[in-house]
Amino acid sequence: MPPQRERRSPENPERLYILTGDDSERAPLDLVTLIVAQGEASPMAQPEHSAILRLCTTPLSVAELSAYMALPFSVVTVVLTELLATELVQARAPIVRSALPDRSLLEAVMHGLQKL
Description:
Oligomer: single chain
Strand order of the largest sheet: 2-1-3
Number of helices: 5
Low-confidence stretches: none
Radius of gyration: 21 Å
Order of helices and strands: HEHEHHEH
Largest sheet: 3 strands, antiparallel
Helix content: 40-55%
Mean pLDDT: 78
Shape: elongated
Strand content: 5-15%
């Protein structure tokens, strides 16, 4: 179970600005992109970087990371962009359920098995 963090107060946006800095280019991530850690955080890493690397030992979506860390999606995407640039995390497309097999094919197989 990921650690619960206290929600950031809206009266103190300085820390969020420090994390995001000026408006820089962001990786093309969406809410369902899966993130997996590929390395360890350095001792000098920001707490948010370390937290993401600890949480992502198994794949987590960007939305889940945002919720666990109590940070806005936009801030999480900036932090993830930095981690992607240093190759400490890997972004994966979400796992899509395959289409259901054709019902007529399943019925044909079932009837074939019944005739045996």
